[in-house]
Amino acid sequence: MDRDEAQGIERAAELVRRSRKIVVFTGAGVSTESGIPDFRSPGGIWDRYKPVEFGEFLASREARERYWIRSRETYPTLAQARPNAAHLAIARLEQMGKLDCVITQNVDGLHQKAGNSPEKVIELHGNTHWVICLSCSHRSPRSQWQPILESGVTVPECPDCGGILKALTVSFGQPMPERETREAERRSAECDLFIAVGSSLVVYPAAQMPAYAVQAGAALVIVNMTPTYIDDHADVILRQKAGVALAEIMKRVEGSSDVA
Ligand code: NAD
Q1: Does 38 sit in the ligand 1 pocket, CB within 6 Å?
Q2: What's the pLDDT at 259?
Q3: What's residue 50's pLDDT?
Q4: Are the C-beta atoms of residues 196 and 222 closer than 8 Å to each other?
Q5: Would you write out the chain's pLDDT as a tens digit for each of its 260 residues?
Q6: For ligand 1, is residue 123 a contact (CB within 6 Å)?
Q7: Whole-model pTM?
Q8: 48-82 b/e with 16+ CB inside 10 Å = b?
Q9: In which order are the strands placed within the sheet that holds 193-197?
Q10: Where are any strands of DSSP class E within the chain?
Q11: Does ligand 1 lie within 6 Å of residue 108's CB atom?
Q12: CA distance 35 to 83
């Protein structure tokens, strides 16, 4: 770590020390160190698959087939993934009583696996470990469908009503969950420190959350490998791997005696 990076870490640690109501906002970049590719980095999901929009998913069986091929091929990595140092550092913030909530765009469930309580995690884009019937709302664990997909079923159907099944995640063109979106907006506007980790901040309305925090006077820390639209408003920008940066910040916070 060079001198600038070390100073950035220390400034971020100081902000964590004096904050009592921290919102951590995460994107796919917080989970790349757990082996889950993000969408937009080279070698990411969009280099390998064309996104299936919600409208075409509903309208065309061929689109549903493409959707389930991608799901069949990518789910094993998601199912096996373990939390990394970044998830664990965020879970420590909750144990220290400093975390208001985690707002995540991720669908992998790794914050909960790292030890964050489910009620502290706001999932803006759903959770890939569940499948829902779009007709009768029957829910089933995603794990139960993997052997069925691998046995050659290309488009699974609801066992109860024969309706269209989809992972409990938000696709492009699909409405955002209302309660979670409202809650995330409110919490962002009420925090004293907003830490955005591993998100390109290009998917809206999620990407709006740091702006709500800044407008309301919160400090902003960004941990991301590439620039974002809101970098100019950040108190600290760390262009480092999330696991390295967050572990280092927490080491300094926990090593000091003047924690608020
Ligand atoms: P994105 O792919 O647009 O951006 C990821 C960002 O993280 C990039 O700017 C990249 O530079 C940065 N990054 C990658 N690895 C990093 C690391 N180790 N440390 C720090 N930064 C790192 O992802 P996004 O902003 O989350 O938005 C896209 C959508 O992707 C979200 O809606 C989310 O639902 C979905 N997604 C989720 C997962 C997951 O659940 N793990 C995986 C892929 C995509």
Answers
A1: yes
A2: 52
A3: 87
A4: yes
A5: 788 889 999 999 999 999 999 999 999 999 999 999 988 777 777 778 888 999 999 999 999 999 999 999 999 999 999 999 999 999 999 999 999 999 999 999 999 999 999 999 999 999 999 999 999 999 999 999 999 999 999 999 999 999 999 999 999 999 999 999 999 999 999 999 999 999 999 999 999 999 999 999 999 999 999 999 999 999 999 999 999 999 999 999 998 655 55
A6: no
A7: 0.94
A8: ebeebebebbeeeeebbebbbeebbebbeebeebe
A9: 121-123, 99-104, 22-26, 193-197, 219-223, 236-238
A10: 22-26, 99-104, 121-123, 126-133, 139-141, 165-169, 193-197, 219-223, 236-238
A11: yes
A12: 10
Distance 38 CA to ligand 1 centre (A): 4
Please give the structure tokens belonging to residue 50. Answer: 């064309």
Tokens of 256: 């000091």
Q: How far apart are CA 260 and CA 256, in angstroms?
A: 11
Identity of the amino acid at 111: H
The closest residue, in CA terms, to atom 18 on ligand 1 is 241
| Residue reference for tokens 């965020």 | 90
In whole angstroms, what is the distance from residue 257 CA to residue 196 CA?
26
Q: Pick from 187, 196, 206: which is nearest to 245 by CA?
A: 196
Which of 220, 170, 217 lies closest to 195 in space, CA to CA? 220
- From the list 189, 187, 202, 39, the residue with the least C-alpha distance to 108 is 39
Atom of ligand 1 nearest to the CA of 125: 34
